[in-house]
Amino acid sequence: MIKFVATTTASLALLLTALFTTTAAQAQDAAKLAQEKACMACHQIDKKVVGPSFKEIAARYAGQKDAEAKLAKKVREGGSGVWGQVPMPPNTTVTEKDALALVKWILAQK
Ligand code: HEC
């Protein structure tokens, strides 16, 4: 019994470590992607530049479950009128998968 508990605790710890490492790695990838795709030329994490800050975006769409798909589409196609008159140009080099990864990362900013 004691041995069982010890093993379970150990595997749980291992599982948790694995889980945290993946999440951290994914966040890092998305941050790098945002640099590579020049999102950071107009956006910052916590301050408005040309476009809204990623924290503002996360706050605005918190709890909206269709936000991810909607925003991923907007990232690729561009658009205006949500945050002001300045348009976001289409980001044509961003794949659908990358757009979704970026949006998930943006919406996770707090
Ligand atoms: C040339 C400047 C520029 C670049 C480059 C840019 N954005 Fe934007 N972004 C904007 C502006 C301006 C807005 C506000 C548009 C509006 O009011 O509808 C915006 C809005 C957004 C929104 C919120 C959209 C909404 O409807 O609420 C997201 C998400 C976003 N950008 C992500 C990205 C990502 C990811 C990239 C990189 C692939 C990127 N942006 C590159 C200027 C830019």
- The helix content is 55-70%
Order of helix and strand elements from N to C terminus: HHHH
The ligands found in this model are:
heme C
Q: Which class of secondary structure composition applies to the elements?
A: mainly alpha
Measured on Cα atoms, how large is the radius of gyration? 18 Å
- Count of distinct structural domains: 1
Throw out a few tags for this protein.
single chain, 110 residues, mainly alpha, Cytochrome Bc1 Complex, Chain D, domain 2, 4 helices, 60% helix, elongated, binds heme C
Q: Any overview of this molecule?
A:
With 110 residues, this protein is mainly alpha-helical. The chain has a single domain, classed as Cytochrome c-like domain (Cytochrome Bc1 Complex, Chain D, domain 2, Orthogonal Bundle). The protein has four helices and no strands. Helix 1 crosses helix 4 and helix 3 crosses helix 4. The longest helix is centred in the N-terminal third of the chain and has 35 residues. The radius of gyration is 18 Å and the shape is elongated. Bound molecules: heme C (HEC). Heme C binds next to helix 3 and helix 4. The site of heme C has 27 residues, from helix 3 and helix 4.
